[in-house]
Amino acid sequence: MKSQIPDLKELYETEYDQWLTETVMLLKTRELEGLDYENLIEELEALGRSERNAVKSLLLQIIIHLMLYQYWESEMERNRNHWAGEIITFRVQLEDKLTTNLRNYLGDELPKIYQNALLIVQNKTQLTALPEQCPYSFEQLLDKHWFPN
Q1: What is the chain's mean pLDDT, rounded?
Q2: How many CA atoms lie within 13 A of 55 on its CB side?
Q3: Going by C-beta distance under 8 Å and a sequence separation of 6 or more, which residues neighbour residue 40?
Q4: Residue among 36, 49, 28 nearest 3 (CA)
Q5: Helix (H) or strand (E) holding 73
Q6: Which residues of 82-108 are buried (b: 16+ CB within 10 A; e: fewer)?
Q7: What is the pTM (predicted TM-score) of this model?
Q8: 3-state DSSP helix/strand/coil percent for the chain, to nearest 5?
């Protein structure tokens, strides 16, 4: 079985889909000695980063659009329905991706995500009287039916 290791490493470089298929097969059959651990670890780490970045991006968009919806009065009449639709869309997408681990990650990252949203909204709108701390609870941000007054 050890002879498969160089083959898998070569497959990783040349035929990623086949490498993935072979790796899954080895895992399912518990033939762990044949695994390409180095690239498998790299792929799992990349997958984790990708999922964290995806949910972080969706939460950022929810916050941006909630702030536009709530505070950008000069554009409210023309854009309110659009922003509401975007908020719901991002919430639905986020709900589909959330796991307990990713939910905890977002809870921890919320202050940082809010600061980025604040910077974006300030630059987009030129509004200066926006809250320095996130005015929305984590549960409000995820609730598909909640909107600020």
Answers
A1: 94
A2: 24
A3: 23
A4: 36
A5: helix 73-97
A6: ebeebbeebbebbeeebeeebeebbee
A7: 0.83
A8: 80, 0, 20
